[in-house]
Amino acid sequence: MSAYVIVEIDIVDPTGYEEYKKLASATVEKYGGKYIVRGGAAETLEGNWKPKRIVVLQFDSMQRAKEWLNCQEYREPRKMRHRTARTRMVVVEGV
Asked: What pLDDT shows up at residue 33?
């Protein structure tokens, strides 16, 4: 079953975050993931949620998504993301 990693991002270092994006993309691809949403326009339809940036990744399974997140290749980019942005991340199974 497909799984989707959904990330809410507040970028605090735009230059550093651009470097992160370059490094992260290759790791996503290596683990069979693909970007579904990568920072397009967002509009709140209900509630008071006001995300600044949303990223959605699709993987073949929840297990594969977690393998990507914790892989050796993503270790340094992940640290870079933590330095350059505040994030909230979930993974959810899809249909």
From this structure: 98
What Rg value do the Cα atoms of the chain yield, rounded? 13
- How far is residue 59's CA from residue 34's CA, in Å, rounded to a whole number? 7
Q: Which residues contact 23 (CB under 8 A, 6 or more apart)?
A: 76, 77, 80
| Domain encompassing residue 28 | 3-93
The residues facing 88 across adjacent strands are: 8
- Give the DSSP H or E segment for 9: strand 3-11
* CATH number of domain containing 40: 3.30.70.100
pLDDT of residue 95: 81
